[in-house]
Amino acid sequence: MPRIAYFGPQGTFTEQAARAFDEHADLVPLSTIPEVVAALRAGAADFACVPIENSVEGSVSATMDTLAADDPVVAVGEHVLPIRFSLLTRPGTAAADITTVASHPHALAQVRDWLGKNLPGARQLASTSTAAAAVGVLDGEFDAAITAPVASAHYPLTVLASDLADEGDAVTRFLLLAPPGTVTEPTGSDRTSVIVVVSHRPGELAAMLTEFALRGLNLSRIESRPLRARFGEYRFYLDFDGHVSEARVGDALAALHRRSQDVRFLGSYPKADGSASVAVPGSQDTDYEASAAWLAALRRREQE
Ligand SMILES: O=C(O)C(=O)C[C@]1(C(=O)O)C=C[C@@H](O)C=C1
């Protein structure tokens, strides 16, 4: 049975995502995202499951930074989970007794309006995850926790309110990570992720994006994070349609490698929504093969 390390403890949304990737896997909860990815890098787990972005609060910066540091790992799958929260308290606590409410900062941000209206006097405190907040309530550290609905099955707490979400259609996207070199077969509905550091010169970012545009590659996300060691410089995270085995994707990656300071390949994996990869006319593998054959013939004639 494969071992999947995930961002725990038990009862997080990430646990649900890990189960969705493989319901029979041996799930190993760890308390922080760096610990989860470190377990994969150390060979203590076969896979790692982490949140990467939320439709309301944006990127999960701990995941972004962990993916860029240390030995590379690759994504082999993504899962998108609808997000709705429960408010958990110790049995006997009434809403009027709540002076502190804790959760993961991404979770607090997704119920900011609800908390403002329903628990205006409660202090909002950050915990390492939604389920860690539930553990904190059990331990008497906080009065209430904003958690995933499944947390109430793991901890003997009372559900004081459920189905909470300021944005009804909120979702979080999770990645299943594997050691580098793990190969996924192309499905025709794939996404590729990379981290690119471009040179700090005028036009470099536009030039990098042009490499995608020229090959008709559909970008689905671009984010930046600071380089940390150099103020004012950034690494760019790009997600785009296609699989590394496809000619247009390989060609774009090679161009990025030629022109950037650094390119980190974060994997090609099936898209969660199953939508077909966009490929503009002239960008299919057969088009690349035909143009390479034409060029080869041209060169042969020149050498005669
Ligand atoms: O704390 C959890 O339950 C998590 O899985 C983390 C996380 C996140 O990082 O965004 C996942 C989904 C929700 O959006 C809130 C928190």
From TrEMBL:
Pathway named in the protein's UniProt entry: Amino-acid biosynthesis; L-phenylalanine biosynthesis; phenylpyruvate from prephenate: step 1/1
GO biological process terms held by the UniProt record: L-phenylalanine biosynthetic process
Sites marked Essential for prephenate dehydratase activity: T172
GO cellular component, one term: cytoplasm
The keyword Translocase is annotated on this UniProt entry: no
Alphabetically ordered keywords of this record: Amino-acid biosynthesis, Aromatic amino acid biosynthesis, Lyase, Phenylalanine biosynthesis
Reactions performed catalytically: prephenate + H(+) = 3-phenylpyruvate + CO2 + H2O
Domain Prephenate dehydratase: 3-179
GO molecular function, one term: prephenate dehydratase activity
EC number(s) given by UniProt: 4.2.1.51
PROSITE patterns found in the cross-reference section: ACT, PREPHENATE_DEHYDR_1, PREPHENATE_DEHYDR_2, PREPHENATE_DEHYDR_3
Domain ACT residue range list: 193-270
PANTHER family: PREPHENATE DEHYDRATASE P PROTEIN (PTHR21022), PREPHENATE DEHYDRATASE-RELATED (PTHR21022:SF19)
NCBIfam families per UniProt: PRK11898.1
Record's protein name: Prephenate dehydratase
Source species of the chain: Actinokineospora alba
